[in-house]
Amino acid sequence: MAEKIGGVFDAFGLKTGKQKFEYTAAGGVYAGENVYAVLQAPRGDATEALVLCAAWVNTEGELNESGVALVLALARYLKRWSLWSKDIIFLITSDSRAGPQAWVDAYHDLHTPPAVASLPLKSGAIQGVVVVDYPTSRGFESLHIVYDGINGQLPNLDLINTAVRIASGQMGVRTTLQEMWSHDNQYKDRLRTMLRGMVNQGLGHASGPHSSFIPYHIDAITLQAYGDGWHDEVTLGRTVESLFRSLNNLLEHFHQSFFFYLLMAERRFVSIGTYLPSAMLIAVNFTIAAIGLWLKSGRLNDKEENKSSDGKASEGKNKLLESAGEVPSAAEQPDVVSEERPLLLSMAFVVATHFLGFMPLYLFNNLDEKNFTSAFYIFTLLNVILPPVLCAIFTKSFAPTALHFTLIKCFSLLLLGMFLSALATLNFSLSFLIGVFASPITFINPTPKRKWTVGAAWMALLQGLTPTTALVGVALYWGEPLSEILKEAAFGWRVWGMWTQVVVWCVWWPAWIIAGVLVAGSWAVEA
Amino acid sequence: MRLLSWPSITQLLLAPLAVASASDYNDYSENLLLKSLPGNSILASFRFVSNGTFDSHHSVFPRSLAQILQQSQTKELHLKFTLGRWDAEQWGRQVWDGRTAGGTGVELWAWVEAADDSEADARWTTLNNALSGLFCASLNFIDSTRTIRPVMSFQPAGHHSPERLERLHLLHGTLPREPVCTENLTPFLKLLPCKGKAGISSLLDGHRLFDAQWQSMSIDVKPVCEESGKCQLQMEQTVDMVLDVERSLGKKDSPVPKPPPIEQLSCDQEKPYAGGDSCFPLSGVTDLPWSLSEMFGRPVRGSCPLAVVPTEEATHVCVNIAEKRSIFVSQGSEERKRSPELRCFTLHENLDFDIVLPELSPSTNLLLTPPPVYASRSLTGHGQERGGIQAVLNNPSSNSTVEFVYLESLPWFMKPYLHTLSATISGKDDGNIIQDIYYRPALDRKRGTQLEVRLRVPPGETVLLNYEFDKAVLRYTEYPPDANRGFDIAPAIISILDSSSQKSTFSIRTTSLLLSLPTPDFSMPYNVIILTSTVMALAFGSIFNILVRRFVGADEVIGGSLVSKIRGHVMAFVAKKRRAGGDKPKTE
């Protein structure tokens, strides 16, 4: 493939380069060869470049026949113009997932040499990337603009706006987003588009060949031809040409527009100022709860504590005090004496649980893909019994008091709040989704002497909110087998540098385990 | 000999000049070399040489420039305006051994006579400011942060006495960002005796020159001495450009590029899908026909009367094309054929001169001589904190080692780490590649980094020169208006050294780079200014109000309307009553 296409580029009088790459992830080998050609801008000085890319095989595994042909034809057509101020790189990657990543890594010299070859030919700083995906030779009905990057990073909104305007305004092609093939621009469809965008962003995987470029601060989109219609290659070609003319006229890198947004329709978005508070509120909820617990923990064993000094959260504690037969008197209420907190044990427990998170992270990134399904089931089973077991071990060996459990919860929530609020600025959707899933943890009372039914109900609720359940949910949402999702995750970790798993296994999962331990602890600990 | 290599052509063209300058003082000569390059491109290399002295009033040497040189005590001057990049892989070696081409933008270096460094700096500033006015270029922006003093890369080309050599200071400055355009060409042409009205300089039209694939204008002034001790200044002006024939001719038909109609396409009929509306274009390349008047928009308007009389050796126009290709010239010119691939002509004073080359199929190219080194440079890494630079230097020769000096002039906000500097051949460093390093670190906002590395590349090998750097954060006033575009980093200069004399014999420039620095949101200071201004206005308004206004009790107001008078009386009365009532208990 690379030979043949390289030959075609050569015949156009373009400089051609090839790059071999090979990745291994989860026992699978992903190898291929990229071929690209550089159209040097006449009078240009090789400081800036644009990339027109087509993958030989698209993300669905279909042969991108018209897309590749279109790139070749455009290479020939655009070469005759003298107006280019930026170099244009025509890139044909052998696949949609590993190929672009290998190429862009090598372009910035951040590749691992024996597995991923260096590029023989480079140009200037890449200012924009357009990927063409047109797997049929029939006409198409609408253009699907894919924009999600790795780790939920997004291209500048101006690029999407330009593409939408050119396609719908000049070419009369309908544009769609997030696989919303029909969109009536009403509340329901907007919400659905936004939620789909959030799920894609939250998962942080590559949604097309363009995704690999975005972490390098290169704005990139994929134009997918969708459906059966009367638009043909010429329309798509003119759209791309027009888009390149626009990018070529850019004096500066895309800036002062939105890099943080949620799209609801092709011309409607939610800006960061509007959506960020939601994720922040969820994250702050954990922090506030943690601070509350901390303040309370200092007074927990204080005998002169007033019953009515606190709200709901201290109810359990008061119950505990009552059960001990020491009813606080209201008269001596103002003098609150703080008590020393047993920090070491609780802190060590929280830290240890967080480090425990590296185990599944390592496991699911290094197992062979054949064992994924069975490993996942075993892990899920272990996951169900892990909190009670952990709790049993913990209570047997350290004989913790209720104060210990309060502090454990306090530290765990503090960490969760801190991680999620930091994450909200990086990947809003992931932080939001995890926050929503983890929010019940705030309401768990780490106190014993409950009815066992309440504890059981809590445990059942928690089991429904595990990361493993979420994984099954994602698998159902996409309609793909579990092993495929895990394979994708392992591939993402190895090749794309995807951080979603780290967040799931080292932030969310430990918080969940601790919540489970707390629930189990309420059965175990005697006052 | 089937082909003429570049050096020999250069010698052929240079030889008569040396002879001429010995015989005549105030002389001027000009010639044009046209060379066909692969890919339907043509290299047009104009060369104008004038000799003269500072004090002569009748010299062809331009007085404007002479006075500047005298004022700033500049003994040797090199000024280059370049646009685009020389594609060495396609076009081979540069003309004139790369001496006349500069890096992208403007490049200036000069030997200034001065007692010490500070005096040299002052004279250098004078020179820059004066040249800036003369050439309409932003040369006055070459300040201390953009000036370096190369140690190994440059040697004076002129004749200087040993005593004077000791007092000469070499200063070098670049402006990689400067767009070279017509406003630089016009003063350039004005320095010529015929000022673009006659002679080969009449071909120099801004529209054609700046549409070239690559173009370079250069001015080199140096003292030339005879054996008798008589010295004079020699100014060599060159304009080199590479024109794309297809594009130059296409402009004639339609200024806007359009896809050709399907009948005009040459399709590969052997493809299974050929015919109808699908077409696989044939790649057969032909040498397109062209003529001087088509390429430059006009023919040569006769010869310049002030130029030296052409002799057997010194001709006006030379064409270097493949032997097979036929050539037609207009009447009134004399052909002096030199070799199968080089044909030279002399022009008549009053007759237009044109060259016409018919189409030739299949294409035949001249054999190219590769440059001593292929060099490319790129930025590595990403992010706004640090980065790296990688230079790929390839020695195409199969038998000789090449030694050269690699010179980087980096702005101060790019802080290289010398310990990360590495030169490797296929991942290994045998300790023999880097011969010598001269490094002058940057001072913040005062001067840039200067890095000179002498390298030796064995035959057929590729050296990777890598180093890393940190990006500084600028003050917000230090950003240019288009801060988000990035900052241009001047091209690296590679001077090939002669193995015996250690003098530079050939020079190559890499392309410039675009470095993106952390850029603030510039609307933020604006917001701050707006907010503070509002607060200031409010505070100032109220304080001023309080300070200036005289407060008077309502009852103290004298005059005014009847209503207010009555009201005042009533109020005073009420107050009095109340005071009287309030006082009573206390007095008791």
Automatic annotation (TrEMBL), chain A:
Q: Which Pfam families match?
A: Gaa1
Which branch of life, at top level?
Eukaryota
Q: Does the keyword Transmembrane apply?
A: yes
Q: Which Gene3D superfamilies match?
A: Zn peptidases
Q: Does the record bear Transcription regulation in its keywords?
A: no
Would you name any one GO CC term?
GPI-anchor transamidase complex
Q: Which keywords belong to this entry?
A: Membrane, Transmembrane, Transmembrane helix
User: What InterPro entries does the entry give?
Assistant: Gaa1 (IPR007246)
Q: Write out the transmembrane intervals.
A: 275-295, 343-363, 375-395, 456-478, 498-525
A GO BP term here is: attachment of GPI anchor to protein
- The protein's name in its UniProt record: Putative GPI transamidase component
Organism expressing this protein natively? Tuber borchii
Organism ancestry:
Eukaryota, Fungi, Dikarya, Ascomycota, Pezizomycotina
Automatic annotation (TrEMBL), chain B:
GO-annotated cellular components: GPI-anchor transamidase complex
Q: Name one Pfam family in it.
A: Gpi16
Keyword tags: Membrane, Signal, Transmembrane, Transmembrane helix
Signal sequence span per UniProt? Answer: 1-22
Q: Record's InterPro entries?
A: PIG-T
Name a single GO biological process: attachment of GPI anchor to protein
Asked if GTP-binding is a keyword of the record, the answer is no
Residues crossing the lipid bilayer are: 526-548
Tell whether Hydrolase is among the UniProt keywords.
no
Q: What is this protein called?
A: GPI transamidase component PIG-T
Organism, scientific name: Tuber borchii
The opening ranks of the lineage are:
Eukaryota, Fungi, Dikarya, Ascomycota, Pezizomycotina
